[in-house]
Here is the input.
Amino acid sequence: MIYISFNELPRECRTYREYISRIERALFDDLARAFPNVEIDYEMTVWDTLNCILELEDDVRFTFVLDEWDFIFHTDFITDSDKKEYIGFLSNLLKDQPYVELAYMTGILPIAKYSSGSALNMFLEYTMVSEEKYSEYFGFTEAEVDDLYSRYEKYTKELRITREGLREWYDGYYTMTGKRIYNSQSAVSALMNNNLGNYWTSSGPYDEIFRNRI
Here is the structure.
């Protein structure tokens, strides 16, 4: 498995090249440790290196988990040209590559919005409002929050949160089938802190959802 968290920046990062080079170096380092019998050339592209590993290591395949793939689209130093180069990087890394077993990407922005033409047209996109298949996994269900609240009651000396309070504050989502879905970070944070609050709004630039919804 290859896991990349795209929301981590190198120290004093000012350019896209510094940003993507850190990711590439980390990948090369991990591959060198995982495949000591393969000579890793840091001057090659990541996809060429992975194809070399595929040829030398008995048809090994990789599952890619790419977290917050769209992070750079709301980063100040990224230009329109950088965005195109980044989409090209993802396309070269994943599209039609024989070493790819599966690629799973998370983010708040639709891939199609930034992937012009056929660059990343091999993905299926799932949201809690448009697809039923995985909608319950976009947050906590009623049963999961019930379980968390029972633990809160058991281990908290002075209860300051009611079950109804959690419902009023954090059940802001509904699946395609109409099931309640709670914001998981907010529910957990409230119970851990024994205090209801706007935890999600402090977790990131949520206004990107509004600016990019059309």
In short: The chain has two domains: 2-114, 135-202. Helices lie at 16-34, 46-56, 80-94, 111-114, 142-155, 163-170, 184-193, 207-211. The first strand starts at residue 2 and ends at 5. Residues 139 and 184 are 5 Å apart (CA to CA).
